[in-house]
């Protein structure tokens, strides 16, 4: 699938991990980082889920310390069993992305200097008490636009 939010030539190798250190990973990140304002992400991470999109596989160390919660038909959320850190949102394999797709919690990336905040999603789900400045610098998508992209068969 064509990802409008990032450019593969800007991919960068990173390491990351949870708060307690039980889970660590290495990943290749797309340059674009985002914020998801949906109600599930806000339950899961206090505010918008700040995301860093991995390209391809993510190699986890301490994978036995990861618990997954199937939060929808198309994705599961991984977190550390010990410290509770939100680690990733894993989109199930799709024909265009046979290995699935890991959207890592940006906060778990060790060196975040390469991240570029370039998109917000579920902007119509944001509760209104917080906001990011400089909206025009990013792509901003509603729930309907996101579902059409990632879960075209889901009931609307
Ligand atoms: Zn942990
Ligand atoms: Zn979300």
List keywords for this structure.
single chain, 156 residues, mainly beta, Metal Binding Protein, Guanine Nucleotide Exchange Factor, Chain A, 10-stranded mixed sheet, 39% strand, binds zinc ion
What would you note in describing this structure?
- Strands 1, 2, 3, 4, 5, 6, 7, 8, 9 and 10 form a ten-stranded mixed β-sheet that branches.
- The protein has a single domain (9-147), classed as Metal Binding Protein, Guanine Nucleotide Exchange Factor, Chain A.
- By secondary structure, it is mainly beta.
- Helices cover 10% and strands 39% of the residues.
- The radius of gyration is 15 Å and the shape is globular.
- It contains two helices and ten strands, in the order ββαββββββββα.
- One zinc ion binds at residues 36, 38, 40-41, 49, 122.
C-alpha Rg (nearest Å): 15 Å
- What is the beta-strand fraction? 35-45%
The second-level CATH architecture is Beta Complex
Tally the helices: 2
Category by helix and strand content = mainly beta
Average pLDDT, all residues: 90
Compact description:
By secondary structure, this protein is mainly beta. The chain is built from two helices and ten strands, in the order ββαββββββββα.
